[in-house]
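Cross-posting from the chemistry board since nobody answered there.

I work mostly on the small-molecule side, so proteins are not my area. We synthesized zinc ion and want a rough idea of how it might sit in this target. Sequence and SMILES are below. Is it possible to get a predicted 3D structure of the two together?
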Amino acid sequence: MTPADTPAPNKAPPARLSGRCLCGAVAFAVDARDLREPGLCHCSQCRRWSGHVWAAVNAPLGDFDILKGEDALTWFKSSEEARRGFCRECGSALFWHADGLAEHKDRMSVAMGALDAPTGLRLDGHIFVADKGDYYDIADGLPQKATF
Ligand SMILES: [Zn+2]
């Protein structure tokens, strides 16, 4: 077998991931070279904003591009620390940016549900489980953090 014929045990992410909102007004791309923390956030803000837990992956701002829809992308300041980006046309919850926190302001959290398949990504854990809803259980065996 040549290397090209050898099946990969795990799919690697494509070098560049693309994504969009539900209506397609907002489209974006992100380089996969330095993605971190593909996980689920159970905090009450993420649950209210997204309708349930929010799945996101984190990338450097410099690796992230809005391809179209800058005018439809709207930012809501959800706390002193962070703002949340959504599509004004369809309401899709797309981005979380902690622009008020020195250690997070240079990275963007991107909704995994907005990414085009195949992502090659797998969730690696849960955060803010101390704030989770009472209407579900976490039963996937992934690591859980009480806060961040
Ligand atoms: Zn939209």
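Reply from a structural biologist on the board:
Welcome over. Reading the output above for you: The first helix runs from residue 44 to 50. Residues 21-23, 25-26, 87, 89-90, 92 surround zinc ion (CB under 6 Å). Happy to explain the token format if needed.
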